[in-house]
Each structure stands twice: as C-alpha cells, then as structure tokens.
Input
Amino acid sequence: MSENRLNSGNIVEFIADIFERRGAESYLGEQVTMSEHMLQGAWLAEQEDAPEALVAAALLHDIGHYTSEFGAYSPDDVEDNHHDEAGGRVLEPFFPSVIVECVRLHVAAKRYLCATDPTYFGKLSQASVHTLSLQGGPMDADEVAEFRQNPYHEEAVRVRIWDEGGKVPAMKTKTFRDYVPLLERVVKQFAETRTLA
Output
C-alpha cells in the first residue's frame, strides 16, 4: 500500500501488518527482536500508568526502521540513518503531536539524558552506546537548551527511558494486536479534532 492510500481508517491495520511481517527482524545487535523491543516499551509505559498517547508513542517509537513500507520520503531514508525523523514523518498525518514528537525526539532524548543525568550512560546497552556515537554523542549545553524548548520534551524523555528498558530477552508483554484498540482510539480522536479545526 502506498503512502497516498493510507488514511485514518487503515493506518493502524497497516502498521499491525508491518509488525506481523517484519517484527521478528533483529534489533541493531540487541538480544531482542524489533517487535519484542517495541512491545516491551509499551508494556513498561503501561506499568507506570502512562496516558494512552505515551503508551502508543512507546509502542511506535521505532516505526521509522520500517519507513520503506510507507513509500519513499527522501534519499536519506534508503539507509535509514534517521529513523527518528522518518518515524515522525510517517505518523504525523494520523497521530497527535505528542506521539509524533516522542517518536521524532527519542534519539535526541538519549543524547539529552546522557548529557544531563550522570547515571544514564551506564544504563545503555552496548549497542546503544555504539549508536550514540553515531548520533552525535551527549548533547552540548546549547543542544540541551534547544531540546528543552520543545513542549513535549518531558514526554520524549519518558519514552526514551522505556525504550532503553525494553531490551530484555523473554520479557512477557502483550501482543501488538492487544494494542490495536488503543491505537485506533488515538487515531480516531486525532482525526476528529482535525475535522473540527
């Protein structure tokens, strides 16, 4: 299905299909698959009684790794070097800003936490330490100040913490299908607000 045929009525099923077809792919050298990682993020969010939007953001934060499924966006997407930005672009037409920004900022949030929390770097997996070096390392003071200007930066930090925690082999979680009703509610509410605007 091309990006032009996606709409608020079919986006959740489209993402579910991606999870089911490609979720077993390895996750950047971690000991969990891509779907296990994303489901663990959502599960951790639920354990903290996070609002539905943040559970959705935790579930979908790495959707940019599947950007090719949504049609071409830019030459950068071919190598998927910027899955955070790509994921935000994919979700933006269908999901509220808080979800889009948490997805878009989840790499920046790692860099932010490494700059502002002396204990955070020690919590990174070996693979996450490696990708941090490719992503620019800890933020400098100007980048920290800019990050804090985003109205959703605190939510993005929460999603990032769940992201880092979601790398545990054999953790019991829900399935993606268990989250379909939640995602459909979020998408429907967003579509309704856009219609009223």
Summary: Confidence is low (pLDDT under 50) at residues 72-80. The radius of gyration is 16 Å. Residues 176-196 form the longest helix (21 residues).
